[in-house]
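User: Run a structure prediction on this.
Assistant: Running it now.
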Amino acid sequence: MSTSTTASVSTHILDTSIGRPAEGVAVQLSARAGRDAQWQTLGGSATDADGRCKDLPALPEGITHVRLDFAVEAYFEKKQADAQQDAPANRDSGAVFFPEVAITFAVKPGEHYHVPLLLNPFGYSVYRGS
């Protein structure tokens, strides 16, 4: 696969509520060739101890749009369970506000796209990194 005809994608997650990487978050990569094309699931991975997905699948030729789906609900549920052991008083009902985060972006052949997710229980931010 030539890097001049395909784009590549990487990501990582930082939990800004604790200033640490978010480990164990499932990430699914989907792509489509054109705005009106159907999404194709290419595969997925999970974040490691550094919050990174190092083994996302390669993009096929002709891809113009990519979607990263982050399944953050299980991560936050585990975090809440761990926190309740230390401090039983919880400031909300325990429901996860953002159970998943989907980021869609356009790509061009030959470019690398690093898309970090800055995450906390009540908000998130994303940007094109390097």
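The chain has a mean pLDDT of 89.
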